[in-house]
């Protein structure tokens, strides 16, 4: 998708097509991260920080997935005894 660089005040800007804006679920006022990689400009929607509780739950699920086999063995042991 080709876009032209335009002047906005003392800065340069590139507009985001509405189809891409909607696809990425962007909203006016959202923050984005802009970086470059091998001559390409990367624009990513900035992630909202998550609460400590949500982070705990994510970490718990990762740990349970990592140790699923051990947890299954313990569960079966409890059922047998």
Automatic annotation (TrEMBL):
SpoVT-AbrB domain mapped to chain residues: 6-51
GO molecular function, one term: DNA binding
Keyword flag DNA-binding: yes
InterPro entries documented for this protein: SpoVT-AbrB_dom, SpoVT-AbrB_sf
Key word Iron present: no
Top-rank taxon: Bacteria
Keywords: DNA-binding
UniProt protein name: AbrB/MazE/SpoVT family DNA-binding domain-containing protein
């Amino acid at each position: 998708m080709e876009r032209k660089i335009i002047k906005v005040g003392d800065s340069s800007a590139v507009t985001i097509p509405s189809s891409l804006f909607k696809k990425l679920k962007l909203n006016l006022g959202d923050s984005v991260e802009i970086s470059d990689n091998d001559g390409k400009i990367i624009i990513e929607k900035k992630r909202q920080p998550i609460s400590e509780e949500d982070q705990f739950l994510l970490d718990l699920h990762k740990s349970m997935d990592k140790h699923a086999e051990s947890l299954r063995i313990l569960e079966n042991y409890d059922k047998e005894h």
